[in-house]
Design a protein that fits this description.
Elements (H helix, E strand, L loop, with lengths): L1 E6 L2 E7 L4 E5 L2 E9 L6 H15 L5 E5 L3 E4 L7 E4 L3 H10 L5 E4 L5 H4 L3 H4 E3 H13 L6 E5 L5 E5 L1
Parallel strand pairs: 4-5, 5-8, 8-9
Antiparallel strand pairs: 1-2, 3-4, 6-7, 10-11
C-alpha cells in the first residue's frame, strides 16, 4: 500500500509500505502484521515499521508479528546436522522497552525462555492465543485509525481520518 508523506500539512510524495498481513473491517485498517519464518534479521524491521507508520500517519495502527518457527539449520556434516534457535531476546526487550512495544507477538513454536523471562512472557504468546483471544479485541478497537482506498491500477493507498 502507499502511505502519503506530508510536510507542513501538504502531501509531498507517497511511500510504498509493504506488509504480509493487513486486516480490515470494511475499508478500515484494523491490524497490520508481519508473518515470518524466523525472527533472525527480521525482528528489527517490524518494530521500526510500527514506529514509522505511526510517524507518517499520526495514528497508532496495531502491529502484530507472527513467527512460524524460530530456528535455522546448523552443522556441516550429517553427524552435526540439527537446528538452533535464532531469537535474540536482548533485541526484542530493547525494542519493546525503548522504541515501542508491538500489539502482539505470536509464535507457533514458543521457546522456553518466552514463558519464563520477564518482558518476554508479557509480550509473546502462542499463535492460538492470537486467534482465539486477542484478534477480536484488536478488531473491535473503537478508534478509526486509517482506511485503505484502492485506485484503478489495483494499488492501495492508506488514508488517515
Amino acid at each position: 500500500m502507499k502511505v502519503p508523506v506530508k510536510v507542513d500539512g501538504e502531501e509531498e510524495f507517497t511511500m510504498s509500505y509493504q506488509h504480509d498481513l493487513i486486516i480490515n473491517s470494511g475499508e478500515l485498517v484494523k491490524i497490520i502484521g508481519s508473518v515470518k519464518t524466523s525472527s533472525k534479521d527480521r525482528l528489527d524491521k517490524i518494530f521500526v515499521d510500527k514506529f514509522l507508520l505511526a510517524k507518517l500517519t499520526g495514528r497508532d495502527i496495531p502491529h502484530v508479528a507472527i513467527f512460524l518457527n524460530d530456528v535455522q539449520r546448523k552443522g556441516k556434516t550429517p553427524k552435526q546436522y540439527g537446528v538452533s534457535a535464532t531469537f535474540l531476546p536482548g533485541h526484542f526487550k530493547g525494542y519493546t522497552v525503548k522504541l515501542n512495544p508491538l500489539d502482539g507477538v505470536y509464535y507457533f513454536d514458543i521457546r522456553p525462555n518466552m514463558i519464563t523471562e520477564n518482558i518476554l512472557k508479557d509480550h509473546i504468546k502462542t499463535f492460538d492465543h492470537f486467534l482465539f483471544k486477542e484478534l477480536w479485541g484488536l478488531i473491535k478497537r473503537e478508534a478509526v485509525v486509517a482506511k485503505v482506498v484502492s485506485n484503478e491500477s489495483g494499488t492501495s493507498q492508506i488514508h488517515t481520518t
